[in-house]
Design goal:
By secondary structure, the protein is an alpha/beta fold. The protein is built from 11 helices and 12 strands. It has helices at 12-23, 56-62, 83-104, 142-159, 184-190, 207-220, 236-247, 258-275, 283-290, 298-304, 311-324, and strands at residues 3-7, 27-32, 47-50, 68-71, 108-112, 164-169, 171-173, 196-197, 201-206, 226-229, 232-235, 254-255. The structure holds NADP nicotinamide-adenine-dinucleotide phosphate (NAP).
């Protein structure tokens, strides 16, 4: 059994990595940054340590004695950040973090990247061989660009001798999504009753499967390799229909072109800004899904025995958890 440090353990993916490790008898040091989301670790037999990746001393203090390190402390650039500054920030944070981890000489490091680093290809589902190089060959939205840049730092660290395996989850749905970043796809239709959808497709995966995929990557992943952690390819309309069916609501009726969706997101952001709140969806998110694509995650299924929970079940669990937390009211 191994002792593992999980960075970002209060995050959606981190909370599932922690549970996957505990379920198989490993010992977990759960790193959190802010106490606000510590509730997702309630009742779990873990050692809690405070780590802020912008304060390298806190990471240095958390590393000793851990054979495995899971880096799932995601940096999400906000809609307000300047593009160049956000890319630089993501790269520098990843470089600093891998340097610090290298000094502790762990046996395995698993870095949570994103399926957004894979480029869409015509006529087939994209796979790991379609990963964007740095700099990307085509314009990518800010989130993808930052993730591609950070992934390069992971590859650089692997080439320099750090035993790092990269995992690239697609859109994760499931419990413990306290930051509601990926859960917005569910909340948009369930809570805000978004009456329209755009024509796009993407891949959706149960976060519990992603948590286990991380553990298997530590056990059997090949160093310096990428593994797409994926579930099912769906259109946005199919996803919305599953979400609304779970709640007994009618599915969204209107299909709108993506340029109109960008316009609506612009209005939503302006309204949220006036009210001093976070917008429930942004232009950046519309751009993220605009170039829809299908993914082929068979490498992780074969090499890591990545499970494939039906997406209906992931939606059921996400909706149930959002209701339990009062994020989503009974409808
Ligand atoms: N969720 C998805 O659908 C998805 C899909 C593909 C890839 N990913 C990637 O997976 C990673 C994790 O995603 P997630 O959905 O689990 O994110 P999340 O729910 O927002 O959680 C992120 C976690 O990282 C911590 N964190 C962020 N910046 C940190 C810093 N500077 N120092 C220490 N901790 C920090 C957060 O702490 P606080 O609680 O203090 O904020 C939180 O615990 C991200 O890199 C994301 O890009 C996510």
């Amino acid at each position: 059994m191994a002792k593992a440090l999980v960075l970002g353990s209060t995050g959606h993916i981190g909370a599932h990595i922690v549970r996957a490790l505990l379920a198989e008898g490993h010992t977990v040091r759960a790193a959190y940054r802010t106490e606000r989301f510590l509730g997702v670790l309630d009742g779990l037999p873990v050692e809690r340590v405070r780590v802020d990746l912008d304060q390298p001393d806190s990471l240095r203090a958390a590393l000793p004695g851990c054979a495995w390190v899971f880096h799932s402390a995601g940096y999400y650039p906000s809609a307000r950040e300047k593009r160049e500054a956000a890319i630089r920030r993501g790269m520098e944070s990843a470089r600093r973090t891998f340097e610090e981890i290298s000094r502790a000489r762990p046996e395995r490091v698993v870095f949570t990247s994103s399926a957004a680093t894979i480029r869409a290809v015509p006529d087939r589902a994209a796979n790991e061989s379609d990963a964007e190089p740095w700099p990307p060959t085509q314009w990518r939205h800010l989130y993808a660009t930052v993730k591609i840049a950070m992934e390069q730092e992971a590859l650089r660290a692997a080439a320099a001798g750090l035993p790092v395996v990269i995992v690239n989850p697609s859109l994760c749905l499931g419990e413990y999504d306290a930051h509601t970043f990926s859960g917005r796809a569910v909340l948009a239709f369930a809570k805000y009753r978004l009456p329209w959808y755009t024509e796009t497709c993407f891949n959706v995966v149960y976060t519990g499967d992603v948590g286990l995929g991380h553990l298997r990557a530590a056990e059997r992943g090949r160093i310096g390799e990428r593994y797409l952690l994926t579930g099912q390819n769906l259109t946005l309309k199919e996803l919305a229909t599953l979400v609304t069916a779970e709640l007994g609501l009618p599915p969204p009726r209107w299909r709108v072109p993506s340029f109109l969706a960008v316009g609506v997101a612009c209005a939503v952001e302006a309204f949220a800004w006036i009210r001093g709140r976070e917008p429930f969806f942004t232009r950046q998110e519309v751009r993220r899904v605009r170039t829809g694509y299908r993914l082929d995650g068979s490498k992780a299924v074969q090499e890591l025995a990545m499970p494939q929970t039906p997406i209906q079940e992931a939606i059921r669990r996400a909706v149930h958890w959002f209701k339990q937390q009062g994020i989503l009211k009974e409808v």
